[in-house]
Amino acid sequence: MYKTLRLLICASVLCLAQAVQAQSIANSPYSRYGLGELNTNLGNLRTAGMGGVGVSSGSSFHANTANPALLYYNSVTIFDIGVAGQYKTLKNSSLSQRDGDANLNYLTLGVPLSKRWSSALSLRPYSTVDYRISSIGSLPNRPEAVIINEYSGEGGISELYFGHGVRIADGLTIGASASYLFGTITQESSTIVGDTSVNDMSLERVAYAERTRYNDFLFRTGANYRKKVAEKAFLSAGAVYTLGTELSAKRNTSYERRDLADTPKSAGLLPDSLEGSVNMPGSLQAALSYDNGANLTVGAEFFTQDWSDYRNLDGDQELGNSYKVNLGAEYTPNANAIDSYFKRITYRAGVRYGQSPYVVNGEQIKDMAVTSGFTFPIGRGSYFEPPYQLNVMLGYGKRGTTDNGLITENYLQFGAGVTINSRWFVKRRIE
Predict the structure, then answer these.
(1) Which ranges of 127-177 would DSSP assign to H, the alpha helix?
(2) Which of 230, 344, 367, 391 is an S-S bond match for 399, by CB 3.0 to 4.6 Å?
(3) How many CB atoms lie within 10 A of CB 200?
(4) Among 17-31, 67-81, 112-126, 146-160, which stretch is predicted with the lowest mean pLDDT?
(5) What is the rounded average pLDDT of the residues 193-202?
(6) What is the pTM of this model?
(7) Handedness of CA 89, 90, 91, 95 (dihedral sign)
């Protein structure tokens, strides 16, 4: 088992190391702003299936990185890998298109270090940029001259997370995590001018590109208190605060002249290459949940982060205050049932509604979705080798509006992953 687990971890690290640098969320025009589309689900497919609820919902067989204080509840070694993607329809007032993609989403290893202390190491996206926008117009007073403007961006910021959770009193756990953020975002704008009144006009594209590399550390603190309020009834309250930070940034700019096949004709660096920092605001998550100590959990969560003070390297304000409200639940009919496999499946559902940080044409973009999820046990397992788990998540949502020349995204989210549980550092005895 240990050899198999080590091979899986090594293979996943190699795959994810490439994937997190080539993150993709399909065409998402709003990722053009700020640091891109932010990953606000800091948990896993379990929390995603519950509408994002996770700050006060601990689990013994899922590494809950949404709140480092809940890592304490990981009583076994957990290796968790997940794949996520989207299929979406983008619409404005007159046009629509479909797009989609999928990629490795997270890789987590959680290890209990003692009866009071557990830790986890995780690699996941912090933000993602992926957009392609084009517009067609004409020169003033010269309608036969056509201008095609194209804007594109790709890349993102990855997060290497290291967290710890400790029990300090009955029902009370605290935690902290340190993350290293790193990644590169490339944004490009290009223009093609064509004049139908000019014979044999040689068309070419003039492109301007900005390549910005980011890196710095990010710290979070968390706490959770779980109390028995009745027979088979527990209430939990949890919170996570992410400290603000100044994210180091270095930007190089360049231009190119290309033909229509995108073959460069000439290129060069521009003299305004810049080093500096962008301010990332702190955030707060707070949650309440109920569980019966066995097979049912219900939770509600609130998240807020004020991006209105964010400035990019040019000093421009692009974003506003964001918030999100999540509601979710999970239920397992009978985890030990031998007469029906369906009773051992965990079923999840949730909803979320929020205001994204993107402010475009005077409109702040809203985002809402309904989610569902399942955990399918693989094998019967034993004390030393708990059963493996296949985790699945589905969600349907809407973001944006077609008012004021904006774009609406109707998206189908999907995800799948495997959780491998194992007990390490246990001496086996033969009686």
Answers:
(1) none
(2) 367
(3) 4
(4) 17-31
(5) 62
(6) 0.86
(7) negative
